[in-house]
């Protein structure tokens, strides 16, 4: 999720933005297998009750990625916080993401 967010417009949480149409960044072909939206939404809900308007969705995604790496026995690393959430999430902005079928 973090890679897919950062690849488009930087690490701004824009992959989480939901509009009423299916033109959001999350629906781009390169984001086809991305999940975890519900986990971030739940974390944001809890944080908003405790400390409203303090922690951005972009920071939650970055911190969750760090914690997932550490939980999988990977290295723990510091994550600077203070990111601002993006306001734009168009599918066309994610057009250059590697597709799930692309070879590495």
UniProtKB/TrEMBL annotation:
Give the Enzyme Commission number: 1.11.1.7
UniProt GO BP: response to oxidative stress
Sequence positions that bind substrate: 98
Annotated signal sequence range: none
Residues annotated to bind Ca(2+): 5, 8, 10, 12, 14
Task: Give the positions the UniProt entry annotates as the active site.
Answer: 4 (proton acceptor)
Q: Which UniProt keywords apply?
A: Calcium, Disulfide bond, Heme, Iron, Metal-binding, Oxidoreductase, Peroxidase
Q: Which family does it belong to?
A: Belongs to the peroxidase family.
Q: List cystine links.
A: 6-11
**Which segments of the protein form a coiled coil according to its record?**
none
- Cofactor, free-text remark: Binds 2 calcium ions per subunit.
Domain Plant heme peroxidase family profile per the UniProt entry, residue ranges: 1-104
Q: What is this protein called?
A: peroxidase
Native species: Noccaea caerulescens (Alpine penny-cress)
What cofactors does this protein use? heme b; Ca(2+)
Q: What is the lineage of its organism?
A: Eukaryota, Viridiplantae, Streptophyta, Embryophyta, Tracheophyta
